[in-house]
């Protein structure tokens, strides 16, 4: 490594270390930048400190390139791959393209490879294709999979859980919205259909997904062809049951095209919009407490208030940073933004996040220390050989021990109070859970009644439509009757005139004959 490169890395490290916490800042990039885009895929490799961007869309055109941003030198470069199919020989001329221009796909780092799943492209495929980019050999290709693969789609979510990828939702190439779940075992490259219970989220695309505790899959936001969502759904991967829990904290506006990344128990959500306005706030969801909070906010026309942007986390100088790229908010963007994250309580053990539990732990620690102090062997202490000094020292120690005993009693009382408070809180939690269960039952009952009323309304509307048709036919019949009446009246008048004429002509002939 040359002196110039070392100086660049040192300058970059100094630049990141001077950033304020929880604020978005554009990175000063040297050299050429990649094409502005949105709906691309992004991933970070912490081992080499680089951000990888693949594909995307710009002015209706899909992009086929792979771009790399180096956080050490703050420079972009284009990555060239050697195409291989099924890990075998290189492609021959005329062979199908293995890294086509793609948009609305997903990318996950697995070992030394980047895996690209799904997306929209001009290449036709009935089922989802899994491609790989080898970061060491720079080979790329299609991975052969087995099992029941999901249909080809874009705007879906892909979440890494252990050695499995969980795929949810999306939009197929016929614009059909999906809400099914599939799993891909990365050890065997086998697809499985995940059969779930309870009510799943409505079909959607351009949502985000996250995993909490390797057990709970969270789905947030997204849209259908007419509705934008701000709901949160949870799939328990052990029981395979969907639920829609209540969330706390700040009100979250509906959005799609946003991006998210998890760090510990926090899920960071950036960007998105509703095709009219971008979402300017950076949200944080505490996945254990299910509480939303706004971390930062930008102007509505800021590149960070865009749809189709990407956000990842990167380790710089031992600290976690958020890094965002691209998006569309009336214009396509290609800036790189970074946020230095302030360390949060989520990194501490859960027991210390509760004030009552923390007080109890402190009391136990103090009591343990006092118990140890009472067991000290005073015969081993090096006291003054003078009898008076010895007696004085022993008296002082006795006073200190008595004081410590009194303090121990106080701490034990405090510990008892904390335990009682914990018991009361537990009872309140049980009461709230019971109330929640009853309210859920009432809600299901009301929902059932609402469905019945809707069905009844539909039937009434159908009957009203039939009656309206009958009324229309009755009106036409009445019009015909009126017409017949007028015709009859005219006919009666004609008959009367004819009779009168015949009667008048008969009288004249009788006068002539007489």
UniProtKB/TrEMBL annotation:
Quaternary context: The nucleosome is a histone octamer containing two molecules each of H2A, H2B, H3 and H4 assembled in one H3-H4 heterotetramer and two H2A-H2B heterodimers. The octamer wraps approximately 147 bp of DNA.
Function text: Core component of nucleosome. Nucleosomes wrap and compact DNA into chromatin, limiting DNA accessibility to the cellular machineries which require DNA as a template. Histones thereby play a central role in transcription regulation, DNA repair, DNA replication and chromosomal stability. DNA accessibility is regulated via a complex set of post-translational modifications of histones, also called histone code, and nucleosome remodeling.
Cellular component, GO, one term: nucleus
Domain of life: Eukaryota
Upper lineage: Eukaryota, Viridiplantae, Streptophyta, Embryophyta, Tracheophyta
Keywords: Acetylation, Chromosome, DNA-binding, Isopeptide bond, Nucleosome core, Nucleus, Ubl conjugation
A Pfam match: Histone
Protein name according to UniProt: Histone H2B
InterPro entries documented for this protein: H2A/H2B/H3, Histone-fold, Histone_H2B, HISTONE_H2B_site
Molecular functions (GO terms): DNA binding; protein heterodimerization activity; structural constituent of chromatin
SMART domains noted in UniProt: H2B
Main location (coarse class): nucleus
Localization per record: Chromosome; Nucleus
Source organism: Populus trichocarpa (Western balsam poplar)
Gene3D superfamilies documented for this protein: Histone, subunit A
Family: Belongs to the histone H2B family.
């Amino acid at each position: 490594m040359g002196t110039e490169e070392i100086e660049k890395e040192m300058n970059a490290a100094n630049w990141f270390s001077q950033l304020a916490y929880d604020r978005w800042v554009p990175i000063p990039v040297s050299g050429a930048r990649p094409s502005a885009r949105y709906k691309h895929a992004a991933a970070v490799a912490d081992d080499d400190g680089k951000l990888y961007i693949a594909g995307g869309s710009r002015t209706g055109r899909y992009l086929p390139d792979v771009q790399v941003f180096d956080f050490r030198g703050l420079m972009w470069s284009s990555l060239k791959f050697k195409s291989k199919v099924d890990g075998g020989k290189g492609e021959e001329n005329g062979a199908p393209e293995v890294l086509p221009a793609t948009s609305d796909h997903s990318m996950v780092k697995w070992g030394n490879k980047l895996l690209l799943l799904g997306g929209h492209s001009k290449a036709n495929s009935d089922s989802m294709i899994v491609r790989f980019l080898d970061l060491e050999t720079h080979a790329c290709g299609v991975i052969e999979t087995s099992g029941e693969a999901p249909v080809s789609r874009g705007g879906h979510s892909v979440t890494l859980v252990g050695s499995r990828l969980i795929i949810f939702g999306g939009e197929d190439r016929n614009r059909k919205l999906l809400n099914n779940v599939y799993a891909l075992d990365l050890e065997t490259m086998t697809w499985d259909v995940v059969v779930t219970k309870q009510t799943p989220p409505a079909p959607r695309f351009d949502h985000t997904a996250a995993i909490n505790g390797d057990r709970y899959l969270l789905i947030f936001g997204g849209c259908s062809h007419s509705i934008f969502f701000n709901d949160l759904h949870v799939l328990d991967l052990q029981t395979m049951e969907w639920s829609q829990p209540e969330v706390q904290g700040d009100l979250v506006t509906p959005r799609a095209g946003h991006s998210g990344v998890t760090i510990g128990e926090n899920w960071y959500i950036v960007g998105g919009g509703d095709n009219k306005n971008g979402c300017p706030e950076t949200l944080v969801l505490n996945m254990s407490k299910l509480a939303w909070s706004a971390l930062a906010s930008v102007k509505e026309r800021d590149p960070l208030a865009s749809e189709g942007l990407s956000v990842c986390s990167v380790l710089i100088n031992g600290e976690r940073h958020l890094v965002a790229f691209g998006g569309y908010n009336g214009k396509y963007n290609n800036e790189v933004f970074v946020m230095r994250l302030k360390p949060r309580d989520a990194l501490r053990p859960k027991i210390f996040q509760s004030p009552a539990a923390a007080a109890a732990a402190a009391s136990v620690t103090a009591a343990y220390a006092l118990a140890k102090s009472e067991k000290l062997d005073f015969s081993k202490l090096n006291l003054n050989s003078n009898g008076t000094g010895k007696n004085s020292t022993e008296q002082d120690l006795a006073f200190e021990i008595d004081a410590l005993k009194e303090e121990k009693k106080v701490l034990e009382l405090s510990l008892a109070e904390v335990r009682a408070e914990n018991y009361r809180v537990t009872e309140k939690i049980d009461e709230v859970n019971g109330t929640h269960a009853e309210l859920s039952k009432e809600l299901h009952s009301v929902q059932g009644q609402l469905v019945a009323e809707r069905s009844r309304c539909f039937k009434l509307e159908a009957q009203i439509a039939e009656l309206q048709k009958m009324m229309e036919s009755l009106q036409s019949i009445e019009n015909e009757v009126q017409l017949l009446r007028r015709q009859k009246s005219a006919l009666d008048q004609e008959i009367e005139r004819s009779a009168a004429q015949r009667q008048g002509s008969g009288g004249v002939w009788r006068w002539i004959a007489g």
